[in-house]
């Protein structure tokens, strides 16, 4: 499951991205780029990436700013950059795309984003979507715009008073703090991630997952949500771009499927075709549940179908 190649990729910002590449032994069909979620890193996708590579797909992804080994130190986990961090992370995703395109110039490029990575992938598609052959949004959702604005105001106030690197229990409570409520009795603070206790325990024991976002990190997340939920930006999605939405129907990030359905309805009028599948009983990390092979197979089938079309 180890990547074919790991390297540090220079960017337009003052940082380098820790990039991983999985290459197939078969003649490659296409490229799938992965945009990982909040408080995790690209190597958590190694089993899925290696499986896709065995089926002829090139898989590439990098740790975002403030994540994994892109972060220069433990103190930088959960911190992006002072100016326009949401735009910068999208530019970083674009840098990874360009790198993969240079390596495989004749292959179609698809983008998969999970959770926060799906929000960033949505912004990417609104900016660079003409370069994509398809978009997969996993564990995505929709938030009331008034709530996003209130969160941004709070993040700005806390950043002004406490500093951009302050780690706020209040911001955590207002964003992720309620996600465990549908799953009593609660065993850990992360039960909402998966109904598989072993997956939850691995996440909790992982030092690159166990950190709290800084005020700057929450501002990045909320600025991204504000951008992608603006109808003017939704209208920027390329009309020819195929989109697949996949989530568990017990995922609180997608409001138990309701938020995913909202995104589906919003995108259906701007892009075609748009497809959606909700997996019964699964929570947030559908690639790590016991039923993950069904998800793997569905994603592969969708990718191969897009190639055939």
Topology overview:
Elements: E1 5-10, E2 16-22, E3 30-35, H1 46-54, E4 57-62, H2 85-103, E5 109-114, H3 116-128, E6 134-138, H4 145-162, H5 169-175, H6 197-205, H7 215-228, H8 231-234, E7 243-248, H9 258-268, E8 274-279, H10 292-308
Parallel strand pairs: 3-4, 3-5, 5-6, 6-7, 7-8
Antiparallel strand pairs: 1-2, 2-4
Helix pairs in contact: 2-3, 3-7, 4-7
Helix content: 25-40%
- Give the overall shape, derived from the CA principal axes: globular
How do the SSEs run, as a string of H and E? EEEHEHEHEHHHHHEHEH
Poorly predicted regions are: none
CATH superfamily: Alpha/Beta hydrolase fold, catalytic domain
Mean pLDDT: 95
What do you see in this structure?
The structure is a single chain. With 309 residues, this protein is α/β, with parallel strands linked by helices. It contains ten helices and eight strands. The model has no long low-confidence stretch (mean pLDDT 95). The radius of gyration is 18 Å and the shape is globular. 39% of the residues lie in helices and 16% in strands. The protein has a single domain, classed as 3-Layer(aba) Sandwich (Rossmann fold).
What distinguishing features does this structure have?
309 residues, 10 helices, globular, 39% helix, eight-stranded mixed beta sheet, Rossmann fold, alpha/beta
